[in-house]
Amino acid sequence: MTDFLNKIRSYLLDWRTDDHPQLPKDLRILPAKRAHTLTPSTSQESLIFASASGGPFFERLPPETRNQIYMFAFGNRTLHIDLQRNRSEFPFDPSVSFHAGSERRLRCSEYPGWCWWSSVCHRVPPFDFFYDDCRNGGQEFADCELYASDLPQQCFLGVMGWLLACRRAYTETINLIHRTNTIHLSSVFIVHFAPRLLLSDRLSQITSLEIVLPLQLAAPLNQNLPNTAKIQWATYKSITVSLPSNFPSLKNLKLSVSTNCRFHFSNPSLNGYEQHLLEPLDTLLKSSSPTLRELTLAVPQPLHEALMSRAVNTGTTVSEQIHVNGEYSWWRFWRTVDNIDDSDHQGGYWIRQGTEDVLVQKMLEKRRNGEDMML
Predict the structure, then answer these.
(1) Residue 346 belongs to what H/E stretch?
(2) pLDDT digits (tens, 9 = 90+) for 321-348
(3) Measured distance between the N- and C-terminal CA atoms of the chain, rounded to whole angstroms
(4) Which of 59, 289, 366, 372 places its Cα 20 to 30 Å from the Cα of 22?
(5) Residue among 278, 336, 328 at smallest CA distance from 303
(6) What is the value of pTM for the model shown?
């Protein structure tokens, strides 16, 4: 156990300096300045040269029809983008088809360094975004056969061949991919250092995010927290500050966090969470207005119950959300944010039950027994 904790501590210290997150030294990043433009302009003027030799698809189909085709083929999905050190996360069973052919990662884990990974999300309703396990092969919360018949190829967006077909195909499609899909992130490095890892042109097109932060936010009672806990809180604050500039077109944000407190929350600890967890999101909402229209924070059930109980005493709006099949439900309450410079904005965000929900065990049990959980 001691060796495991030392490894975690070493990993955290590897990417921070003075309690602030830093990029690992062995992680390749984008150059500060490029010698030439990597992605050509998407303006119509730049595509005039292609109109004479674009083929029937571009010459005969109007832009509106082409966009409908692009949307059907590549849009309105949830896409995973992940960045982690190569490692084997589960034993490989050749008789099991893992989501997105995740068993292939076992081969690349032999090589040191960092590995990018992506797929289309095949999470099963009613499991929410904070229970997503597509990254680990979808053994509990995903069911690829409900989405695809050809595994594992259909677990991927399959857009690369089209993007490489010609310049016009690329320019008409690349922004649509980021603008119309929800991007699911669970890597602190991508969320915090997005401009140094992904092209700013692509980040500026992202409108919807699901972020599951792999942080354990200890109760911020005082300044005598362990260094690892301070790093976690410094990372969280830094992320909330950088999100508006990293994703300037963001309209819908779902954020999930975890704590290391599972049962009882005293008033001082709740005051600490109000100050260090919720107030940075208040500032985020203000600084992102009017672009950010919907913000949802998911917190572990014990903390949610404590915060909601306090909110009820102040007359806060509380509602029970029931899944469409009527069997599963969760609670959420509204947090009002004042001084938002947008009269059309709702003026706040929802805080809902997140991880460690007791209903999860019941849903997993039904799934293991082969019972129907779908709509």
Answers:
(1) none
(2) 776 566 677 889 999 998 776 656 678 9
(3) 43
(4) 289
(5) 278
(6) 0.82
